[in-house]
Design a protein that fits this description.
Number of domains: 1
CATH architecture: Alpha-Beta Barrel
CATH topology: TIM Barrel
Structural class: alpha/beta
Order of helices and strands: EHEHEEEHEHEHEHEHEHH
Mean pLDDT: 91
Low-confidence stretches: 76-85
Bound molecules: zinc ion
Distance between the termini: 17 Å
């Protein structure tokens, strides 16, 4: 079996066939964790997960790109990489404030296994020093609130971190040394130095279809070779980041096997061992056996 620790089946791209996609995944023994990115998608994740006895779980949180003013976001624009455009690949963000009590209620649902995805994203940054500083400070403030929620609810954190690894590391090291949250850095794109710091803090690392690409000069293969197997979890980030071998327009949890294959190749370990280790890692991190 495999665990897709990051698949947005709660997103509009799956509004017509979410149940079918999840049932196909479960039929192949693939569990799915669906992270929210704002209140609506977090609530949808909890509602969807509640319809399954086991194997489908929710994470709830406010993603940093939803803190800014309305703006068109191309979610597939990974650094300079652009893939063919579909309507669900772009959306308009609308600024949302983090409402602690509302998210706390979602976090207390029995199907919620993490706070996420939350974090820092400096990719679409405002111009001007003062505005940039305010933009970063706002993201950090909302992240602190959500880390506090994770600590209060005894849940791990699914971190989104884009072009902001050093700031995230500095914040965690300086402010949480006495109460470090547990968690995973999803869609990991840090360099080796940053990887060592995240490892030291106890975090896991999530990999998806991005590992088939060179991201901004960083080398996912180098990082995966370096990482201990106990700290790796698999994900798809469906509907985005489809591995090159996968068919169809959207990425789906079933494609997590291509990521498992590639990690097996890079680490020169059998697919069976990668599957069992990453499944164990995900079950331990998200306490899936208790849900
Ligand atoms: Zn995501």
């Amino acid at each position: 079996m495999l665990v897709d620790t990051h698949g947005h089946i709660n997103f509009a791209a799956f509004q017509n066939d979410a149940a079918k996609v999840l049932e196909q995944s479960l039929a192949q023994d693939i569990f799915v964790i669906m992270p929210g990115t704002k209140y609506e998608t977090s609530r949808r994740a909890v509602e969807l997960a509640a319809t399954y006895e086991r194997g489908v779980y929710a994470a709830v949180g406010l993603h940093p790109i939803h803190l800014s003013e309305k703006r068109r976001v191309d979610v597939l624009e990974v650094q300079s990489e652009r893939v063919e455009e579909k309507s669900w690949m772009t959306f308009e963000t609308k600024a949302e404030e983090f409402d602690y009590p509302v998210f706390k209620e979602l976090a207390q649902n029995e199907k919620t296994v993490a706070i996420g995805e939350v974090g820092l994203d400096y990719y679409y940054r405002p111009k001007g020093k003062a505005r940039l500083e305010a933009f970063k400070e706002k993201q950090k403030e909302v992240l602190r609130a959500q880390i506090n929620l994770a600590l209060e609810a005894h849940l791990p954190v699914i971190f989104h971190c884009r072009v902001a690894h050093d700031d995230l590391l500095d914040m965690l090291e300086q402010e949480y040394s006495d109460s470090m949250p547990r968690g995973v850095i999803h869609s990991y794109t840090g360099n080796l130095e940053q990887t060592k710091r995240f490892l030291e803090l106890g975090f896991s690392f999530g990999f998806n279809g991005l590992i088939f690409k060179q991201v901004q000069g960083l080398n996912p293969q180098e990082v995966i070779s370096f990482l201990p197997l106990e700290r790796i979890v698999l994900e798809t980030d469906s509907p985005y980041l489809k591995p090159p071998q996968a068919k169809g327009e959207r990425n789906e949890p079933l494609n997590v096997r291509y990521v498992a294959d590639e990690i097996a190749r890079i680490k020169n370990i059998s697919l069976k061992d990668i599957a069992s280790a990453t499944t164990k890692n995900a079950k331990t991190l998200f306490r899936l056996n208790q849900v």
